[in-house]
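Limitations

Structures in this collection are predictions, not experimental determinations, and the ligand pose is part of the prediction. Treat each record accordingly. The example that follows, with magnesium ion as the small molecule, is included so readers can see exactly what is and is not provided: the inputs are given verbatim, and the output is the predicted complex.
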Amino acid sequence: MRVGVVTFPGSLDDRDAQRAVRLAGGTPVALWHGDHDLQGVEAIILPGGFSYGDYLRAGAIASLSPIMTEVVDAANAGMPVLGICNGFQMLAEARLIPGAHTRNAHQQFIRRDQVLRVENASTDWTNGFAEGQEITIPLKNADGRFVADAETIARIEGEGQVAFRYVGVNPNGSMDDIAGVSNARGNVVGLMPHPEHATEPGFGPDTPDAMSSGVDGLTFFTSVIERALSK
Amino acid sequence: MPTIVVEVMPKAELLDPQGKAVVGALSRLGQQQFTDVRIGKRFELTVEGEVTEAVLADVRRLADDVLSNSVIEDVVSISVLDAAPAV
Amino acid sequence: MPTIVVEVMPKAELLDPQGKAVVGALSRLGQQQFTDVRIGKRFELTVEGEVTEAVLADVRRLADDVLSNSVIEDVVSISVLDAAPAV
Amino acid sequence: MSTENDRAELIDVRPEGPKPDTTADAAATPDKHQPYEALGLKADEYAKIREILGRRPTSGELAMYSVMWSEHCSYKSSKVYLRQFGQKVSPAMKKDLMVGMGENAGVVDVGGGWAVTFKVESHNHPSYIEPFQGAATGVGGIVRDIISMGARPVAVMDQLRFGDIDAPDTRRVVDGVVQGISFYANCLGLPNIGGETYFDAVYQGNPLVNALAVGVLRHEDLHLANAKGVGNKVVLFGARTGGDGIGGASILASDTFSSGGPTKRPSVQVGDPFAEKVLIECCLELFRDELVEGIQDLGAAGISCATSELASNGDGGMFIELDDVLLRDPSLTAEEILMSESQERMMAVVSPDKLDAFLAVTAKWDVETSVLGEVTDTGRLVINWHGEEIVNVDPRTVAVDGPVYERPVAYPSWIDALQADTAATLARPTDPEEVRAQFLQLLGSPNLADKSWVTNQYDTYVLGNTALSFPDDGGMVRVDEESGLGFAIATDANGRWCQLDPKQGARLALAEAYRNVAVTGAVPAAVTDCLNFGSPEDPEVMWQFSQAVEGLSDACLELEIPVTGGNVSFYNQTGSAPIHPTPVVGVLGVIQDVAKRVPSGWQDDGDNIYLLGTTSLELDGSAWAGVVHDHLGGRPPAVDLAGEKQLGGLLAAGADQSLLAAAHDLSDGGLAQALAESVMRFGVGARVWLGELLERDGLDLATTLFSESTGRVIVSVPREDDVRFRGLCEGRGYPVARIGVTDASSRSLEIQDVFTVSLDELRSTHRGTLPARFGATIPQ
Ligand SMILES: Nc1ncnc2c1ncn2[C@@H]1O[C@H](COP(=O)(O)OP(=O)(O)O)[C@@H](O)[C@H]1O
Ligand SMILES: [Mg+2]
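Predicted complex:
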């Protein structure tokens, strides 16, 4: 499966996302923000980073990039799209998913290995998990606090659009401990933590078994690939 | 060259942690008369040429679509700099 | 309760990376009439009680000492909200 | 060339008003008064410039000479000493050195066609004035040095020294510095893999902010910055030039703080990491497509430095049309443009037939670019402004042949008394309860406490190659995803020891960094250093400096690892009180497969715990003496470099044969602190017995626990590897004693017959200190 990873000026984890696609058995395709060409990919990842320095609002300027026109059209047509951290912020700015992100409640950049609960295991990117499963995924952001008005929160809670929730610690003050959200159709998923950093043994978070051995993030990428293959 | 000022504030319903931190800092300095502080943004746009109605219309649209995010922010003022209050 | 508005801008001589990024974004959107954008902060302080001369003096001092960093920023305006220009 | 500019002082560098001062003017008005003193030049230096030129300098030339002849850019006080790093080298030390001292950063061959470049640099004074921007631009500057070698930056580290943790101003500085480093490096997408954080009142008005960057390249990608090839274009690209940091390099680094004066241009610089990130990708693409002859970063002294250094390193001549510099502020004068330290700029030398392709790449990355001039064979650097010649100099006289001083050196009047005041006579606890209390007091003391308040703000994951980072002894990064080849880096400096004896202190810094790399399983290969000292005009400081360089260079020769580059930062003092000499030493090591890396903490149940090395009564300058007795005196510990080498070899072999589950070096706080850290790393407890040790080394309990003797490491070894490990130690003849066993279920550190402390108490003591001062963070 060809999975596109869009590089924006200031994208940082684009190579990591490409590596994760490869480790999951897919073929990563590098896409450039300034093009209007998706090169025939079957899924798209908007990677983490500080596109345009996170200036103005995180993800805001990148969401105006040329390629986002194609990304929005593809998403609306049902193509799987995953937004990681900065990519999550872009999805919100582009209104592909509800809500927005503000500065972390404690005002600092934070990096930690974060436990998440999978709340919706039916989306294109989460179907390899079991509902209620707890996974550990590295988190690192400064503007990670998910917010929305009460009505929106009630709606996404009610319709199962909350894909992940923080467990134990809410690292940024997100409403309802929300760590990840999907669109109504379940093909577009955004989350703050970085699954691509938990895909290769020796370079992931610590687990009770061994240091840096956590690979819970791999399931995001195998989910989308296996569902595509089974179609 | 003329300057247009656009001011954006976080929505009143939303917690503004940065503002809260400033209230705390002020109160530790003995300044308890400030019950709330909210922190927004002030954009100064320098315009090439005259500030016509068309330019202002552009600015109003950009203020809503680009300079602010209506999920979390409100545009509270747009003005041409000369009209701004003095210090 | 009355609100006092303090506005702080990055010093004109210094680079404002945020503003630079926004000028670039606007120009990519076809809005080339804006030659410069600078982004500062707008503080809204809610005051318990009346805005006396003493309170304003406090705010002026705090604006310099706490709300802004004089090495890189200037306080460009202090006003009571009612006096602010309309949207 | 480095990027520090050191003072908040603001100056007006428009001595001649708006009309440019041309070389013709200079010839016509030889006696015109020039404000050389305000620019930091001494009368004899000014006379020397006149002699070189055979006339008075133009104001532009004066600006250039003044910044380039500043302490900071010219190394005029340190040069005579730094030569030792180049002289004391054996053939073995040169073997893997692809680029040695003198370039933007040294380059080491790490095998498999790969090379690593690394360097540490200071940004001390700016970080006191404006901590956030000062620290941020410090990271930006050192990263540009790495890029200019043709390398991709892959990691950063930061070495921080702040004032007393409880002093009122400390929080401002700590907050700003840490956030500045976090912001800039995170935004560049560079993992932070380690560093140092110390608090001491001697750094109160003079914090140290050193930043280290590492880059990786293929051998064939190596580029040196020089202007070769007559007719090649000189191109400036990156951010526009503005009025920031003007006069920084010279005024700021030359004299002590003087307050106030009318201000025209702010000397702080604002960093734009996004612009730098784009610049990195742009430069790498230019190198990859072979579109440049060389690239020079712009740091301190901006265009003055880049043009004169490029020309000096090339064919010797260059012509520049200064009007073509893209400006952020059109009111800048020629002198200001020459001196501006605007960040995120680079200068390239480009062959004319490649210029179009070059411009296409910079356009792709939205990087503004302007062609300023070209390489000539005149031997002169000529700069025109508004059609008139304002600079005409031999570039070597600006960049290379600056003044060199042999500053007076004086043995400090106070040092004999300080060394005589040993900590050996301080009361040592014997009662187990008291030992326990002192152990916890040390564990929670600012310098031994957990630093995750700092490091939680740094990204370690980005790029996906970080094999080790905090709180392990060294940071480790994979270079080659196929073979697992990687490098490790650790940095160290103990200012207290250097105050007692700067020569020994420098040796100790090297020994500790070496050991910290060795415990990870890597083999030490090269050294970088950042020498932070007081004023070179103070003969006692100059003595400290000379001792430190002598000690460090001798020690490098003994360990056979070369110094590849570094930085000197003088004038770190408040009034007449200098900081403790703080020579930060960074050691780079190579590991064939990062899968064999060794962490610093215990992982599994039932492993044997061994102490390698022996302990003596060495409490002078220790954390124990400082924290418990507020004492600093005596002589620092002995250091046996041959022993360190032997220990390093043993650890490398142990790691390579996968015999070591953990290895942690003993340093500040001694054995007690190392044991506690090993428990806390993964939450695996241990039972430890000291009886045998006390007997073997003939020491009391407190000394055994708190002494800071060197050459010591604790390792844990799985039972099944025990015989092989003991065989390894015997074969290499290094002292070893089994002192305990890991016990995962105990969740505590038990020192038999002395005390037991639960994991929870260890952690709460260790973790509480920084958040209590600087604000709570998320629990880890
Ligand atoms: N400012 C900092 N930036 C990054 N890492 C840091 C910083 N300060 C401390 N650390 C890390 O915290 C850990 C403990 O530091 P320290 O006790 O000084 O180590 P050591 O004694 O081995 O030199 C190390 O992994 C070190 O790299
Ligand atoms: Mg160590």
